[in-house]
Amino acid sequence: MEDKQGNALMPLEVDILEFVVPVENNKTLLIWDIEPSLTAAQIHVALCQVFSTFGPLYLVKVCPNAPVASPGFYAIIKFYSAAQASKAQRQTDGQMLFQTSPLKVRLSSRQTPSTLSRSTRLLSHTHCLDLANHCLGFNSWSSHVITLKELSDDDDEELLDGQRRFRFCCLIQLTFPHHGQTTRGVAVVEDTFMDTGPELVLQKRGKLQKSVREEALVQAFSTVLLVLLGNRKVMVEVKQNSNQFLHELTEGAMQVNEWQPDVDDDLEEQRQP
Q: CA-CA distance, 199 to 100, in Å (whole number)?
């Protein structure tokens, strides 16, 4: 590829992040020779500060060395991106960073089990927020509840005396206004418990409503792809959603009309800076 002047252009690097738990070993760094001059908590903070400059982190874990080894710590760091993990390894290996002696930083060489490499586990609600905010910023996405309703329980005869069951369904819309993209997620959660009074019933209802909203947002994020370009720009793409239940809810509930008393009518899931 050439520019208008005929000069060769370097190909644009592209990396794609999904809102799933990273399990590949090429996204995992192992760090040795961490001095015992700092506490594990202080080391955790220092590692986050250093390695988050290369990209969003899924996991930072600090562990003490085995009793047979010299005093100190080792750490495990998981990136969402293999390219960012590789770059971090090259630029930090042999550097002192936050201590007075150099660190050893290596990519994990353990073989990923085939069953694990084929599995796809969605990120938690908290990790979804962290990844979106790290890559896009706090003000570049928003979400709102389209409908949240309690589903009727057709299996009352299965409940024991004194038991009660709540089942809630939520449809949520996730919007990326700067990228012109919108997607939706749907979730159903339920809980069976012993009814010991109105206070517990109210508590269970509120907890389940929060849980179903969070799970619906997780499902919405599962359809999103973050496309990282080499020029530090980020694009948002949305995968095709084949969830039949989502389509049925979308057709039948285009506006919120079954709010529960303890649900905020202006729900906004996005965290503020």
A: 56
d(CA 76, CA 30): 5
Dig out the tokens for 166 from the structure.
């709540």
DSSP 124: P
Q: What is the pLDDT of residues 178-202, one digit of tens each?
A: 999 999 999 999 998 888 888 999 9
Closest CA to 145 of 215, 66, 247: 215
Three-state secondary structure string covering 113-138: CHHHHCCCCECCHHHHHHHHHHHHCC
Q: Which residues contact 3 (CB under 8 A, 6 or more apart)?
A: 9
Strand-pair partners of 18:
225
Query: Do residues 124 and 50 touch, judged by C-beta distance below 8 A?
Result: no
Q: Could you give the CA distance from residue 228 to residue 141 in angstroms, rounded to a whole number?
A: 16
Indicate whether 26 pLDDT > 70: yes
Percent of the chain at pLDDT above 70? 78
Helices and strands in the chain: count of H runs, count of E runs: 6, 10
Is the separation of the CB atoms in 109 and 25 below 8 Å? yes
C-alpha distance from residue 159 to each of 162, 163, 195, 201, 253 (Å): 8, 6, 11, 16, 30
The one-letter amino acid code at 59 reads L
CB neighbour list of residue 214: distance below 8 Å, 6 or more residues apart: 125, 269
Residue 120 CA to residue 39 CA, distance in Å, equals 34
Q: Which residues pair with 59 in a beta bridge?
A: 78
pTM of the predicted model as reported, rounded to 2 decimal places: 0.82
Q: How far apart are CA 221 and CA 215, in angstroms?
A: 10
Per-residue pLDDT reduced to its tens digit, 5-18: 555 545 567 899 99
